[in-house]
Structure to design on (914 residues):
């Protein structure tokens, strides 16, 4: 008799796991059932801001594989079906059809939790008003675009200044809205140290975004119909026909919590290196609902990124398919685009490093993305953190134009290999005038960091 | 009494060494004398094709620091002065002033050989005719541009299809010449495997370059004035008012050879890791005149690239300045631009790997430089070599549009860290739709290579 694999959540992790398991084990060996509470499966959540902005024409473009395509590969994908209870001793899942309300218990041999994350909604007055959107799923994106199209007013407020907030602010500007961003941080792009975030501020202001920093949102003012009309702060209010929450996300693990599965400090599921939930050999979890090992700090962290989610799905599907694969951890890489500014980070920010008990030197250098004399050479700023005494690379942040973002990959690999900044100075990186100065900006930073480590005690 | 550092050759290695030594030791401690036989110092040789094409307006743009600027920092830079003999037991250099013919012996405590490389000129009839150019120094570039400007005819032939040949072919097209490239290889871009070179052929033909492959040049036909008029092959001839040699370079080590210094198979000087000539504690060498350790094959190789030359200069200047630095070796990274095609390689080609006694699997994958649904997503082809059984990464070649070239840096760092392709599959690379699909093309290749290694025995 075939084993049954039950997957909860049909986006990056869930469907990668299902597809990879199917590749390794045919339908006669393994039955695969997937529950998805939303209206879409296998889509690029990271593409939503570009759909909102109009860069990407329609939601379908973001969909890698339709439910029908999955079903054609013998994956029993049940849309609009929410898993509402786990019976772990009994190895079964209770699900509800959101259209009919029918509830069903489904037994499993292998269970995959790929429940994703939900936007953080602080308990403020009016936070659940009409017109206030978190943007995490394609359904969220669909709802937001509908609201933007039908909105009578043109004022939008983005609350929070992480990369999703920044990307959404740009998308809203391009949709013709007046955009205000309110953040309690001192600079936008909270995934960077403030000194690097300051470089992003300029690009955002240049786009016409009003930036309100160092300011807490205290609530929303709503009209008689319960629709948001303004975002409130201690001192004033900002008119808002649409509000986008960019305050980050939290793991969607209520179901797992109720079933008593082990959760970390962030609320993310705890797994082993094969992505099996700790203490449970027949339950896997991955993507935005788990904690991952930060290979630089040695700590467990929650990072919601499609790239990790896909890798987790691959590892889970390989494991359930009878192969062997692990997810060793992350180094904290993230890249983003703000107008024509490219923003990247990997490893630890200063605060992260301090919290982890690390002492370090920082350097910030200015260079260019191409040879200085080559047409189109634009400034690039690289900040580098190196551990005191050992000189081990701890983190890199880059802000610049063309070629800035993916340059951070050099540091991502160096972090993975636990290189020192001095070892990095000898890296044999690609050099030709259209692509780099003869000393790549990352090497210039590594040289400066090497000197800083040598000078330090 | 101050020590005296004598440097032969005033480009990347020589002047980096002189500048770094000066930074660490003042003029009261260290006298620095530099001999340069040419008319220019401290320039970007790699920028010459872009000067010929017109992308870079003038030679001065390629000059990082003028002789006067060097002299202002107490570096006694003697231009148009050729070192013609080394007296190693007597620790002195004989130089000749090329304008006056005056010859002088200069004693040294520390000697730096930074004599660069010269274009290979096979002993063919007419190879030294007027109108036949190697392009290695800024003087060469100056001579070529003068010839292009004054040429009555518009036919140019590039002999050889390495990256300099390819860059020069594009530059000549942009100067309004009809360009034929003749190469004995089966495809252009001999720094790639032929299957990847085939992707470059298309771009070159698209630019209007006539490609003659699999063909040996047998000589040049010259006119009564001794000016080249055609490039000859066994079967036919190609009209040529200008010929550019792109057959590679050889280390310019005649001086060193006559002095009995140790040379490798390529004719490049042999050094230790601190760039001291083997067996000579007071003689350093670096840049295009030395052999370097290929960290992937374990062999000594000759690679003429400004990026290595600058690093060597830095290491030499640090050593002579009393500090400590080494150059551990290269992994064979090179990037280039052909029209809007980006071309990159690092590590070993198939032939290199075979010659080194390595057995390996190869995979070639097609992906895109951005998320497939993102505007401007263009194809990218990645070829990867992984060692049989161990799965160690051996080499990567990439051909694509925007973002292809510098992606090779991921592999360059992975090679340095001796990662396996399976380790690479877990790399935390930058992902956002404008910069990469959720599986970066390099990761897609690493996954395919991992499967190939697993399938192999």
């Amino acid at each position: 008799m075939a084993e049954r694999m039950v997957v909860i959540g049909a986006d990056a992790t869930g469907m990668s796991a299902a597809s990879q398991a199917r590749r390794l084990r045919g339908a006669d060996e393994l039955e695969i059932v997937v529950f998805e509470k939303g209206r879409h499966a296998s889509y690029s959540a990271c593409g939503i801001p570009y759909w909102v902005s109009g860069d990407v024409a329609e939601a379908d473009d973001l969909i890698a594989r339709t439910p029908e395509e999955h079903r054609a590969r013998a994956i029993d994908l049940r849309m609009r079906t929410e898993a509402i209870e786990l019976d772990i001793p009994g190895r079964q899942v209770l699900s509800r059809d959101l259209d009919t309300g029918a509830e069903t218990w489904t037994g499993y041999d292998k269970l995959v939790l790929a429940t994703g994350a939900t936007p953080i909604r602080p308990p403020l007055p009016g936070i659940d008003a009409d017109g206030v959107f978190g943007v995490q799923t394609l359904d969220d994106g669909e709802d937001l675009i509908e609201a933007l199209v039908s909105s009578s007013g043109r004022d939008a407020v983005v609350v929070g200044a992480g990369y999703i907030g920044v990307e959404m602010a740009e998308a809203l500007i391009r949709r013709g809205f007046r955009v205000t961003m309110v953040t309690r941080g001192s600079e936008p792009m909270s995934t960077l140290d403030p000194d690097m975030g300051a470089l992003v501020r300029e690009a955002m202001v240049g786009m016409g975004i009003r930036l309100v920093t160092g300011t807490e949102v205290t609530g929303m003012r709503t009209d008689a119909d319960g629709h948001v009309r303004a975002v409130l702060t201690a001192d004033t209010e900002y008119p808002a026909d649409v509000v986008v929450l960019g305050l980050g996300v939290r793991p969607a693990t209520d179901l797992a919590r109720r079933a008593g599965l082990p959760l970390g400090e962030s609320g993310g599921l705890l797994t082993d290196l094969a992505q099996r939930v700790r203490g449970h050999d027949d339950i896997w979890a991955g993507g935005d609902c788990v904690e991952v090992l930060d290979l630089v700090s040695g700590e467990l962290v929650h990072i919601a990124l499609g790239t990790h989610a896909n890798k987790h799905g691959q590892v889970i599907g390989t494991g359930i398919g009878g192969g062997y694969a692990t997810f060793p951890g992350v180094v904290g890489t993230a890249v983003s685009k703000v107008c024509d500014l490219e923003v990247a980070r990997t490893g630890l920010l200063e605060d992260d490093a301090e919290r982890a008990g690390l002492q370090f030197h920082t350097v910030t250098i200015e260079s260019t993305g191409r040879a200085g004399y080559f047409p189109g050479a634009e400034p690039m700023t690289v900040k580098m953190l190196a551990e005191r005494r050992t000189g081990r690379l701890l983190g890199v942040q880059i802000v610049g134009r063309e070629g800035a973002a993916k340059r951070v990959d050099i540091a991502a690999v160096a972090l993975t290999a636990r290189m020192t900044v001095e070892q990095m100075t000898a890296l044999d990186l690609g050099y030709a005038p259209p692509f780099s100065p003869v000393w790549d900006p990352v090497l210039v930073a590594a040289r400066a960091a090497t000197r800083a480590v040598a000078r330090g005690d």
Observations:
- Chain A has three domains: 3-118+250-320, 121-247, 334-455.
- Chain A has a mean pLDDT of 96.
